[in-house]
């Protein structure tokens, strides 16, 4: 509201430029780069990160573009790198966090190196897999030998009745030759004894045993005996790297047909069969052999593993570096793919947006590229005209960035109706983030006014700010990331809460006599009637904030409610006026006089004749101590505007004039603008029968802003009119509802103070009333938890959300279009990590 | 309680319906197909697919690609999505989802049995099986010698067991028997699925009845065309038709006596929905029939998404993805074999 009064246009125009107020001036540039220096030029631009390439090959699919082969090679290389990373991860090694400083390597060289490494690794893996396979088989064989041997012995011992029969019939694997053939899982049936009982022994996954047994039972129609025992060791599965529990089994059966079937089932279930000789001595001999081979294999396996680990460590040493190199190369080629060949095929032509301040830097980088690649011809760099709206780019720093994010987030929540991809401020539109930096934490604090809670927040914010360097370099969880990103918002929010808390005189809902003595005292010594009758004033008013003695007295709630309610309306009105004034600055900036005359002026008049008047009444009442009833004044202004206001009278005809002004402002907002736009349109096209080709410069800068959207379409009067009608109605209704909406400041502030009173009085003081240490401790704990989680976390969140809403809706809808698109420069710094 | 699904559907089905609709929006569009058809090598296809939802499944494949790898990975994605939905589903949706895979189970059983008959390696056959139709004891199918054993040893444990009641014979397996078995099983399966959907009621039964009836009718036509000139008798042929669908029962009588493709055409043109399919074909031609049927099916499946609060979207999504994978396979094959002129022969655009 500092702008009312006699300001001069020139003064406004000569204000120092505010970087954050308007987005950076952008320009469309064209680059003509000789082929030999193209790669280097683009990678230098990537390091600089200030140029956004326009895709000139939009109509081509990715594999029809010029540098598709290079992109493919990069993708292949990053696949290899992912493979290495996976392998390193599997081996339980960590890629070294700080990449070894190493001279830059050429892509071709790197490609060869990677191919070599991959080849080596795959070979090593294949070898170790083969070894592991053999090892597993031997291990299984060993277990089968042990367990199945036990069965054979015990079946000899226990089943005495069958024994004679079995003894004769059990085949003996006496033609067992060497373990090598065993490893090929060749089953050697015993010398066939046509009528006899024979057996097959093997090993199977524990989870499959039940089904396996059932299947065997069904196929042989129950003519079999199934023995099983849990294997002692677990087998490592080479594919998944997990240990699997296995069970050793022995099946006794008879008949040749059954044998084929059982073998087929074994195969189907993935059960490995191993022959076990009947003879104990032979069994021992084989076991010994197997054991010795096992230990041999173990050492081989270990040596192989060590070798592989060494190779992987050496890869891991360079892995991070390689990954950045490859992802940068890929990004460079992706950008090169956006460029066009010129007619001679010797140059690449690119277009892009860059901020004006960066032009010299870009030129320097291009020169460096020409020089470094020993090119004969320099890169041609020149500015082009464009009818397209440039991207929006704000230069932010650590401090302003979160506030800009708060403003930009609006687009994701409520995308503008006119454009689908709307999310950030229109090019060069007034940026609400400038004001948000102060108003946002302040409105938050109005709702969160408690200097005790404020100090808690401040400590948290200070922690985050002081550890900025350390926390910024490491990966945080999503919640911490959010907190960390908003640390400066948090800092200001807490400072303002302390300020507001001091005004409200609240410290965990306890009032303090900080600024001197209270002005009030009780009527008598017991103070029993302070709730019912009130206090007596006996000295000068308390110098700052709310008088501490009022806590719990009769006048506390009525006073605070009245104060906070009126204060909310005053803040709201100030912020909405600021919004409308910003719309003036926008219109002025874009030289749009129609918007000033037919939108800004009536809007100001409408809002201020009703609610500005209310604000003046509030302030007058505060200053003069008048007893006037403001509800009465406002309501009767509409019901009977000619009524005599008595002592509320400020000037003659107060009610009538203001009401008339408000009523005039509505059609003023609604009708003139569409008709004027229509007239301008018909004037422009008068006498022209045909439309104009290439409408690039037919709208000059005097063109009304709203007509810009109709660049490529016909002027549709009814659409414009309906749009204007919606806009006007929205504003008129919004003036009432937005003002009411600011009352949330009062409501949340009240809720916060009442909640903290409840926790303090009904929990802490109640518990302190007992002379029992345990009850006191419990009370303290409950109070601490309630303060931390409900008051500090939940209330912070809710106050944050309400402040957000007040900015997005009540403030920004007065001036903010938010239908621009963000500047996304080609930059190595913003390349996504491949870490996930 | 037709018409009241909206009140309670979302309690159990809302999440998954949202999921499946999200999956659907990942289906390849006509623009994608246009780009894919312009590809010169399989690597180009991979590159294009890497920008779609298939990206993560293909990105770690080393460069000389094969059609089978592409198809396998794409199927893997479908299977992953199916499993995700299945684990999240509650009754009766989980049963509904289970029904969707029975068809693949039947195909796998037939594949393995036929393969064993021709003495192929079981492992090799298992790799060819559709992953959705896998069940635990599938490898043991190779043990069985005839239908009775097949049922008693293996299939009695699977959900297919009830469908077997009609085809248990002690005959030894041969190609003809197996084909009859497949169709009998399919018939029983479709009828069972149809009954199940009827039981579910509401929009599910309405839409699924339509989709399943189309499926049944298509099978009837295919059985008829494939059995022309074989030793299958009319009665046997009649027995293989499912007992529902638009053609049931009079159309089936007519189909059962058909002796050549034009008679089939004559029988089918009496049914308005199928008239359009056959009107696209010239007389005596049956090659393009498959594609015409697929196109009609895709049209119907897409329509299933127009309505909310029913299970048919799951069925439709699975079918559409399978069609998409068929398309990808065809395109990849054409690209791999340098037959790009024929790319459009068999590709069915989904949107």
UniProtKB/TrEMBL annotation, chain A:
<dbReference type="InterPro" id="IPR026028">
    <property type="entry name" value="V-type_ATPase_116kDa_su_euka"/>
</dbReference>
<dbReference type="Pfam" id="PF01496">
    <property type="entry name" value="V_ATPase_I"/>
</dbReference>
<keyword id="KW-1133">Transmembrane helix</keyword>
<keyword id="KW-0175">Coiled coil</keyword>
<feature type="transmembrane region" description="Helical">
    <location>
        <begin position="651"/>
        <end position="671"/>
    </location>
</feature>
<feature type="coiled-coil region">
    <location>
        <begin position="107"/>
        <end position="134"/>
    </location>
</feature>
<keyword id="KW-0813">Transport</keyword>
<dbReference type="InterPro" id="IPR002490">
    <property type="entry name" value="V-ATPase_116kDa_su"/>
</dbReference>
<keyword id="KW-0375">Hydrogen ion transport</keyword>
<feature type="transmembrane region" description="Helical">
    <location>
        <begin position="442"/>
        <end position="465"/>
    </location>
</feature>
<protein>
    <recommendedName>
        <fullName>V-type proton ATPase subunit a</fullName>
    </recommendedName>
</protein>
<comment type="similarity">
    <text>Belongs to the V-ATPase 116 kDa subunit family.</text>
</comment>
<feature type="transmembrane region" description="Helical">
    <location>
        <begin position="773"/>
        <end position="794"/>
    </location>
</feature>
<comment type="function">
    <text>Essential component of the vacuolar proton pump (V-ATPase), a multimeric enzyme that catalyzes the translocation of protons across the membranes. Required for assembly and activity of the V-ATPase.</text>
</comment>
<keyword id="KW-0472">Membrane</keyword>
<feature type="transmembrane region" description="Helical">
    <location>
        <begin position="567"/>
        <end position="585"/>
    </location>
</feature>
<feature type="transmembrane region" description="Helical">
    <location>
        <begin position="605"/>
        <end position="622"/>
    </location>
</feature>
<keyword id="KW-0406">Ion transport</keyword>
<keyword id="KW-0812">Transmembrane</keyword>
<feature type="transmembrane region" description="Helical">
    <location>
        <begin position="486"/>
        <end position="504"/>
    </location>
</feature>
TrEMBL record, chain B:
<dbReference type="InterPro" id="IPR035067">
    <property type="entry name" value="V-type_ATPase_csu/dsu"/>
</dbReference>
<keyword id="KW-0813">Transport</keyword>
<dbReference type="Pfam" id="PF01992">
    <property type="entry name" value="vATP-synt_AC39"/>
</dbReference>
<keyword id="KW-0375">Hydrogen ion transport</keyword>
<dbReference type="InterPro" id="IPR036079">
    <property type="entry name" value="ATPase_csu/dsu_sf"/>
</dbReference>
<dbReference type="InterPro" id="IPR002843">
    <property type="entry name" value="ATPase_V0-cplx_csu/dsu"/>
</dbReference>
<comment type="similarity">
    <text>Belongs to the V-ATPase V0D/AC39 subunit family.</text>
</comment>
<dbReference type="InterPro" id="IPR044911">
    <property type="entry name" value="V-type_ATPase_csu/dsu_dom_3"/>
</dbReference>
<comment type="subunit">
    <text>V-ATPase is a heteromultimeric enzyme made up of two complexes: the ATP-hydrolytic V1 complex and the proton translocation V0 complex.</text>
</comment>
<keyword id="KW-0406">Ion transport</keyword>
<dbReference type="InterPro" id="IPR016727">
    <property type="entry name" value="ATPase_V0-cplx_dsu"/>
</dbReference>
<comment type="function">
    <text>Subunit of the V0 complex of vacuolar(H+)-ATPase (V-ATPase), a multisubunit enzyme composed of a peripheral complex (V1) that hydrolyzes ATP and a membrane integral complex (V0) that translocates protons. V-ATPase is responsible for acidifying and maintaining the pH of intracellular compartments and in some cell types, is targeted to the plasma membrane, where it is responsible for acidifying the extracellular environment.</text>
</comment>
<protein>
    <recommendedName>
        <fullName>V-type proton ATPase subunit</fullName>
    </recommendedName>
</protein>
């Amino acid at each position: 509201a500092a702008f009312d009064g006699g300001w001069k246009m020139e003064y406004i125009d000569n204000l120092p430029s505010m970087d954050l107020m308007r987005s950076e001036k952008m320009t469309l540039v064209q680059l003509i780069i000789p082929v030999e220096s193209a790669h280097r030029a683009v990678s230098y631009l990537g390091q600089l990160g200030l140029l956004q390439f326009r895709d000139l090959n939009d109509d081509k699919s990715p594999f029809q573009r010029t540098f598709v082969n290079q992109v493919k090679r990069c993708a292949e290389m990053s696949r290899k790198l992912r493979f290495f990373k996976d392998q390193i991860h599997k081996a339980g090694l960590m890629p070294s966090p700080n990449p070894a400083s190493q001279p830059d390597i050429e892509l071709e060289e790197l490609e060869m190196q990677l191919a070599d490494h991959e080849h080596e690794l795959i070979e090593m893996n294949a070898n170790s897999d083969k070894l592991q396979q053999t090892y597993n088989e031997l291990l299984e064989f060993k277990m089968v030998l042990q367990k199945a041997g036990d069965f054979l012995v015990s079946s000899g011992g226990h089943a005495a009745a069958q024994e004679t029969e079995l003894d004769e019939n059990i085949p003996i694997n006496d033609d067992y030759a060497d373990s090598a053939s065993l490893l090929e899982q060749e089953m050697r049936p015993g010398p066939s004894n046509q009528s006899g009982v024979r057996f097959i022994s093997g090993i199977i996954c524990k989870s499959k045993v039940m089904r396996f047994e059932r299947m065997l039972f069904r196929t042989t129609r129950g003519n079999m005996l199934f023995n099983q025992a849990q294997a002692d060791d677990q087998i490592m599965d080479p594919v998944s790297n997990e240990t699997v529990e296995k069970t050793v089994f022995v099946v006794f059966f008879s008949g040749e047909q059954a044998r084929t079937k059982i073998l087929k089932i074994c195969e189907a279930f993935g059960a490995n069969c191993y022959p076990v000789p009947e003879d104990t001595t032979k069994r021992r001999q084989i076991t010994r052999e197997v054991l010795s081979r096992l230990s041999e294999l173990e050492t081989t396996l270990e040596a192989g593993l060590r070798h592989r680990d060494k190779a992987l460590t050496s890869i891991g040493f360079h892995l991070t570096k390689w990954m950045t190199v490859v992802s940068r190369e890929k990004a460079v080629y992706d950008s090169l793919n956006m460029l066009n060949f010129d007619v001679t095929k010797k140059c690449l032509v690119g277009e892009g947006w860059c901020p004006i301040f960066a032009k010299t830097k870009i030129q320097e980088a291009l020169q460096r590229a020409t020089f470094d690649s020993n090119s004969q011809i320099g890169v041609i760099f020149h500015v082009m005209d464009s009818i397209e709206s440039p991207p929006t780019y704000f230069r932010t720093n650590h401090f302003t960035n979160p506030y800009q994010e708060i403003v930009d987030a609006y687009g994701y929540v409520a995308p503008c109706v006119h454009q689908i991809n709307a999310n950030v401020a229109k090019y060069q539109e007034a940026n609400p983030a400038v004001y948000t930096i102060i108003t946002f934490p302040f409105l938050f604090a109005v709702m969160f006014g408690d200097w005790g809670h404020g100090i808690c927040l401040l400590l948290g914010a200070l922690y985050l700010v002081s550890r900025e360097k350390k926390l910024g370099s490491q990966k945080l969880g999503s919640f911490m990331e959010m907190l960390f990103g908003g640390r400066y918002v948090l800092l200001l929010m807490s400072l303002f809460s302390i300020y507001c808390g001091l005004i409200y005189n609240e410290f965990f809902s306890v009032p303090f006599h900080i600024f001197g003595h209270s002005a009030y005292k009780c009527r008598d010594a017991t103070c029993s009637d302070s709730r019912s009758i009130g206090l007596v004033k006996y000295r000068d008013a308390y110098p700052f904030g709310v008088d501490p003695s009022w806590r719990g007295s009769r006048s506390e709630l009525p006073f605070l409610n009245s104060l906070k309610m009126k204060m909310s309306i005053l803040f709201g009105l100030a912020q909405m006026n600021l919004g409308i004034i910003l719309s003036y600055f926008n219109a002025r900036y874009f030289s749009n006089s129609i918007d000033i005359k037919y939108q800004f002026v009536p809007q100001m008049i409408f809002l201020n004749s009703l609610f500005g008047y209310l604000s003046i009444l509030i302030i007058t009442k505060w200053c003069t101590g008048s007893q006037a009833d403001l509800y009465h004044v406002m309501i009767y202004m509409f019901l009977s505007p000619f009524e005599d206001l008595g002592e509320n009278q400020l000037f003659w005809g107060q009610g009538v004039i203001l009401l008339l002004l408000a009523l005039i402002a509505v059609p003023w907002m609604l009708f003139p603008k569409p008709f004027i736009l229509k007239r301008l349109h018909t004037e422009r096209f008068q006498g022209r029968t045909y439309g104009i080709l290439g409408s690039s410069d037919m709208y000059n800068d005097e063109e009304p802003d709203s007509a810009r959207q109709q660049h490529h379409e016909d002027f549709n009067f009814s659409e414009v009119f309906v749009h204007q009608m919606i806009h006007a109605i929205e504003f008129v209704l919004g003036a009432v509802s937005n003002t009411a909406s600011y009352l949330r400041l009062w409501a949340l502030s009240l809720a916060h103070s009442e909640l903290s009173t409840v926790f303090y009085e009904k929990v802490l003081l109640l518990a302190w009333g007992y002379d029992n240490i345990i009850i006191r401790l419990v009370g303290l704990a409950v109070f601490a938890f309630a303060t931390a989680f409900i008051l500090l976390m939940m209330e912070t969140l809710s106050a944050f959300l309400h402040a957000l809403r007040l900015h997005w809706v009540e403030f920004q809808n007065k001036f903010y279009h938010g239908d621009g698109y963000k500047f996304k420069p080609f930059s190595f710094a913003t390349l996504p990590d491949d870490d996930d | 309680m037709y018409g009241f699904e909206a009140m309670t559907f979302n309690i159990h089905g809302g999440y998954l319906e949202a999921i499946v609709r999200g999956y659907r929006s990942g289906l390849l569009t006509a623009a994608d197909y246009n780009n894919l058809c312009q590809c010169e090598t399989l690597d180009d296809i991979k590159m294009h697919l890497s920008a779609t939802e298939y990206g993560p499944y293909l990105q770690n494949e080393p460069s000389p690609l094969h059609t089978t790898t592409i198809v396998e990975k794409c199927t893997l994605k479908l299977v992953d999505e199916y499993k995700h939905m299945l684990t999240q589903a509650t009754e009766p949706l989980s049963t509904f989802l289970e029904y969707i895979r029975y068809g693949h189970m039947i195909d796998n059983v037939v594949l393995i049995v036929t393969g064993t008959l021709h003495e192929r390696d079981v492992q090799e056959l298992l790799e060819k099986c559709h992953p959705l139709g896998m069940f635990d004891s599938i490898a043991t199918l190779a043990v069985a010698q005839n239908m009775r054993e097949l049922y008693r040893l293996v299939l009695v444990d699977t959900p297919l067991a009830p469908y077997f009641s009609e085809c248990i014979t002690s005959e030894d397996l041969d190609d003809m028997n197996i084909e009859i078995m497949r169709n009998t099983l399919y018939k029983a399966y479709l009828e069972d699925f149809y009954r199940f959907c009827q039981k579910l009621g509401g929009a599910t039964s309405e839409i699924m009845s339509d989709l399943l009836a189309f499926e049944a009718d298509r099978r009837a036509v295919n059985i008829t065309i494939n059995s022309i000139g074989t030793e299958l008798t009319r009665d046997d042929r009649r027995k293989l038709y499912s007992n529902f669908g638009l053609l049931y029962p009079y159309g089936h009588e007519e189909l059962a006596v058909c002796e050549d493709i034009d008679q089939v055409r004559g029988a089918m043109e009496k049914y308005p929905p199928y008239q359009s399919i056959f009107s696209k074909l010239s007389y005596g031609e049956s090659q393009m029939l498959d594609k015409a049927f697929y196109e009609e099916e895709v049209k119907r499946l897409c329509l299933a998404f127009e309505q909310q609060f029913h299970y048919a979207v799951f069925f439709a999504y699975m079918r559409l993805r399978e069609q998409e994978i068929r398309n990808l396979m065809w395109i990849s094959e054409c690209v791999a074999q340098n037959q790009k002129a024929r790319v459009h022969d068999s590709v069915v655009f989904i949107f």
